[in-house]
């Protein structure tokens, strides 16, 4: 990187963020938007504006909050965005209102950042992601052309979601993370289902009450075979959720596990 190139990229990134805010929230000052005490209302306005601009959400544009019951601080609040992504407060919050604002702030930062060009799945992004994946497993780029390999399946999923944002892709990945955690993907492999067929089918499935009910039945059957496994998994899931929340990660996968 040439001297000053890093600074230029940072300046361009900040300009892109300001442009996004001015486009979707024209009455807000980009300098103070993430410090605003009315961040809850700002987050809702952001997603309503996206909806008016043509974005389609299965359950409407309403942002949903969930406060964790607690008789004392620190309080915890989760916020689920219209697309399905979930975030939580990661600061120590002494009131429920403060936890709600902090969760909204985390979600707003991610929502605005997700609008940046760098967050779109493009051919350049796919190529870079596959190269990184291959390097991480000491594999071969030829594997990307073979859908029976894990690299090939990942390449197929990226190609199928070209043009989507990373949050949209993460919402899809959450379904497959849950299927893997639940043991469904292993069962499908044992039944000789191809990865391409599995991806094609479940890419069209939403994370709804029907899918949750199917997974719940699977865990009831597991409990009959291994007594106490549900309690053990619940404790592990709660720890994972807490750790992810405190680091500001997207939480849908961790949150769905505890249900």
Automatic annotation (TrEMBL):
InterPro entries: Autophagy-related_EPG5, LIX1. One of its GO terms (biological process) is autophagosome maturation. CDD domains: DSRM_SF. GO terms for cellular component: cytoplasm. Belongs to the LIX1 family. This is Protein limb expression 1 homolog. It comes from Chiloscyllium punctatum.
């Amino acid at each position: 990187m040439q001297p000053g190139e890093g600074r230029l990229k940072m300046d361009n990134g900040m300009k892109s963020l300001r442009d996004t805010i001015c486009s979707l929230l024209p009455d807000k000052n980009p300098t103070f938007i993430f410090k605003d005490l009315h961040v809850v209302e700002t987050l809702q306005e952001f997603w309503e504006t996206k909806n008016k601009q043509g974005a389609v959400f299965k359950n409407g544009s309403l942002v949903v909050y969930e406060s964790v019951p607690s008789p004392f601080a620190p309080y915890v609040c989760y916020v689920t965005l219209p697309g399905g992504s979930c975030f939580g407060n990661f600061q120590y919050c002494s009131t429920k209102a403060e936890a709600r604002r902090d969760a909204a702030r985390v979600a707003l930062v991610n929502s605005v950042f997700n609008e940046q060009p760098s967050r779109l799945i493009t051919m350049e992004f796919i190529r870079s992601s596959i190269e990184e994946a291959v390097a991480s497993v000491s594999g071969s780029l030829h594997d990307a052309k073979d859908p029976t390999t894990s690299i090939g399946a990942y390449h197929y999923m990226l190609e199928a979601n070209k043009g989507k944002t990373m949050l949209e892709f993460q919402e899809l990945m959450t379904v497959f993370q849950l299927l893997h955690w639940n043991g469904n993907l292993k069962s499908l492999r044992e039944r000789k289902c191809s990865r391409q067929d599995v991806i094609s089918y479940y890419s069209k499935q939403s994370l709804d009450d029907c899918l949750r009910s199917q997974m719940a039945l699977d865990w009831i059957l597991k409990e009959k075979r291994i007594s106490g496994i549900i309690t053990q998994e619940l404790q592990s899931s709660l720890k994972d959720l807490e750790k992810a929340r405190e680091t500001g990660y997207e939480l849908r996968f961790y949150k769905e596990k505890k249900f």
